[in-house]
Amino acid sequence: TMDEILRNAKRVAVVGWSQNPERPSHWIAEYLEKAGYAVTRVNPGLLNRGIAGVEAAIPRGVDVVDVFRSPEHLPAIVQEAIAAEAKVVWMQPGAENEEAAAAARLAGLTAIVGSCIYAEHRRLTGATQ
């Protein structure tokens, strides 16, 4: 279940991270860090801009790959998540791709489609602020 994933996960890769603080990928990454997760920001397009802590690819051994990309990018991201031996691919609202989710499940990953990790974490923790 989503609750078990959020309770057990330690490392989260945020794919499609934006340096713009207004973008959900940016502030949700910060929220997850404050909540105690080790967060890796993944955005190959930002690599040559000298932004610290941004990776080009999903690192090996992450628990959750939280995706903020449009649906057509999901098949490649799922293949990368499988290669990185991730446990979960979490497709944020707007990043839903059922075909890619099916491929993830076939490879033994859990796929969450269309739920917001931020909203689910707040619900799980009973956050009121």
Descriptive overview:
With 129 residues, the protein is an alpha/beta fold. It has 5 helices and 6 strands, in the order αβαβββαβαβα. A 6-stranded parallel β-sheet has the order 3-2-1-4-5-6, sandwiched between helices. Helix 3 (74-83) packs parallel to helix 4. It is globular. The model has no long low-confidence stretch (mean pLDDT 95).
Briefly summarize what is shown.
The protein has about 130 residues and is α/β, with parallel strands linked by helices.
The neighbouring-strand order within the major sheet is 3-2-1-4-5-6
Shape: globular
What would you call the structural class?
alpha/beta
Strand residues, percent: 15-25%
Poorly predicted regions: none
Provide the helix percentage. 25-40%
Describe the oligomeric state of these chains in a short phrase. Answer: single chain
* Count of individual helical segments: 5
Q: What is the tally of beta strands?
A: 6
Q: What's the SSE pattern?
A: HEHEEEHEHEH
Q: For the report, how would you describe the main beta sheet?
A: 6 strands, parallel
How large, in whole angstroms, is the Cα Rg? 14 Å
* Distance from first to last alpha carbon: 24 Å
Summed over residues and divided by their number, the pLDDT gives a mean of 95
